[in-house]
Amino acid sequence: MKVLRMEGRVIAVVVAAGVFGFIAIVLGFVGEAKRIKTDEVTYSADNGYCYYPITSAPALGIASAILLLIYQIVISVGVGCFCCSRRPCPKECGGICSIISFVFSWLFFISAFTNLIRAAVLNNMNFLMDHYSNDDDLCPVANPGLFAVAGVLCLFTVALGFLSYFLVMCSRNKGVGQLSNDQGVAMGQPQLPKEGV
To answer: Residue 44 gets which letter from DSSP?
Structure first.
């Protein structure tokens, strides 16, 4: 019964995290296609303003960042080695590799999250008009590829998070199998109370 409950939990974590992670990756790459491009910006010599088009890229970047955060929380709870559980991580090779993958997943997450927010801000029409109008006729836009880099970082975050999760689950399953194989008759000397005490 406990094994079935554990399998159900593993499937639930994988499906939930997979959906959030996949959508975050896709939105990151769609944001690249929807970003503000140089040829879409017009400069008015009359008043010195740069006119930027309204685009869905900022919303896509914010949504991707939020979904990636949800993914990372789900995987962290699933791994459960550090702050989310009282269980210690396994000490064998799979457990150590899981910890390393988990740490790198968080590092890639931080980088992806900040790049997604940065890309969203730099593609916001109001931000660009407030910061770059009236300067000159350059009308700068965000560098191409900012969303694509964030999408690749999301991909690495998701891949390392899943690797960490599967490694820790395999390590825990080995421990469960060893416990069930070692059960049996306990051998030892009986402890009888001393007479005359």
So the answer is: E
- 3-state secondary structure at position 49: strand
157-184: pLDDT as tens digits: 999 999 988 888 777 666 544 444 444 4
Joined tokens for residue 138:
């350059």
Name which of 39, 81, 30, 79 is nearest 57 in CA terms: 30
CB of 67 closer than 8 Å to CB of 16: no
Phi and psi at 89, nearest 5°, equal -70, 145
What are the residues whose beta carbons fall under 8 Å from the beta carbon of 34, sequence distance 6 or more? Answer: 55, 56, 57, 60
Specify the pLDDT at position 96: 78
Please, how many CA atoms are within 13 Å of residue 107, restricted to the half-sphere of its CB?
7
Distance CA 119, CA 123 (A): 6
Predicted local confidence at residue 168, as pLDDT: 81
